[in-house]
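Retro notes
What went well: the complex prediction finally ran end to end.
Inputs used:
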Amino acid sequence: MIQRAEQANIVGLRSKDFVKWVEENIDAPMKRGPGGALLDTLKGGLIGEFFNWAKRNSTWPLHFGIMCCAIEMAATSDPRYDVERFGVIYRSSPRQCDVLLLNGPISLKLRPAVRRLYEQMAEPKWVIAMGECTICGGPYYDSYSIVKGSYTFVPTDIFIPGCPVRPEALIDGFLKLSAKIKAERGGWVRTKKGRLVSAREGQLMDMQKGEYTYEVPQVRS
Amino acid sequence: MKSPKSEAESRRRKVGTIGGTVRPLIATIKQTLVTMPGINRLVPGGRKPVTHLYPYQKVELPLAYRGQHSIDWFKCIGCELCAKVCPNECIYFEFYEVEPTSEFLNPSRAQLDEMKKVIRRPAVDIGHCLFCGNCMEYCPTDAWNFTQEFELADYAREDLYYRADELRMPKENSDKEIVLINRIGEHPILEADVCIGCKKCERECPTRCIDMLDGPNDRKGKPIVIPEFDYTKCIGCQQCVDVCPVDCLHMEEIGYKDLEGFYHINLQGEVKLLEEQVEK
């Protein structure tokens, strides 16, 4: 059962729905037209490569600090670990961002806000779970008010364990994210243990089969 | 020192070409040269660049840094004390069947029971770990270690569950010197009236500090044996407390000087604290 306060925070149109709408109403008629074959080759060829290069070298995260890992997030952008070397520039508005950097335990009250921020970001977008609190609740794993992991309600791409995460480890996470974006065309990326996982989408727990019984705020389509 | 000007006068003053363009340009060039490799020695106030080029430059971490876990399988006795002290309960134990000639069996408690060729070794959910080092501090055999590996980021939540086999320390790094220290400061205390003399604790003890002695008769008038603990050997792993079927054992802090008088503690139920011992 969704609470009324959560219902009020729900966004009307998902960005994925918008992409789907664009594909149905703009891309499909264009492909049916005279230049359709040319469009396909351009998208799969050099232009697609260029866009991939641009995407993986400018992963702009949202400047959204939840708890103590936000201090390490700030330390990562200081002159010593100059994270802008990799095109990581913190922005204050979700409309300008590519990466939702979650750093801290997400409480049940914050969850609809985080979901709303995620929906407000434009496609393509990725989510980084930084620190154990975001990955699975951390030391508050048996608390009544903490969500057991960001991957229960937003598709999470990178999990960075640590308490808190070192600045170098965060840089490593961003580099691994760019490696994932680079592997997007192939569709598969290798984890540290050598297992193949999908490079095109983040991990989202199936609420029907998952072990957690928390409800995800449903989005009206 | 310049003479102080009035506010209105300073506002009226215009910034000229030199003040507006040339001076900032000089400052910028100077700042660039100060940290430029090769030239920074010639410029007054030159210094090294502040930025640490992480992926291309090696990170120097302190030796005590707690990164990836690594467990010395020769030293570990599978007492599960680390899982008990873990604040996040992120340590799990896995069972491995080994051959009787395996070197991991020493000093494992599996050696006590020759029918059992099973060892238990810890596995960690790194996505849930606090990296607090409690497991390392309380380990009675110093089997827990932390490496300086910090690049643990991964693409899937399942891959953060590290199995015991993946956390094993390489053979070369192990010194194979076994130490047995009670770091938790607690020892098992027996309630002799409740004990039924099943000898399970004796079988479970990894250091063989339990000896079964003749005890009082039970309710039916049948004589039983009760455990006697050698507290100088006990490492406080709580295995005897866990296996006891009638809950006649519990852990308690006792003073170090009381270690020699363990007979009194067992049979008469007297527990002397350290403060009382010092007062005498």
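What we learned: Chain A touches chain B through 38 residues (CB under 8 Å).
What to try next: split runs per interface for comparison.
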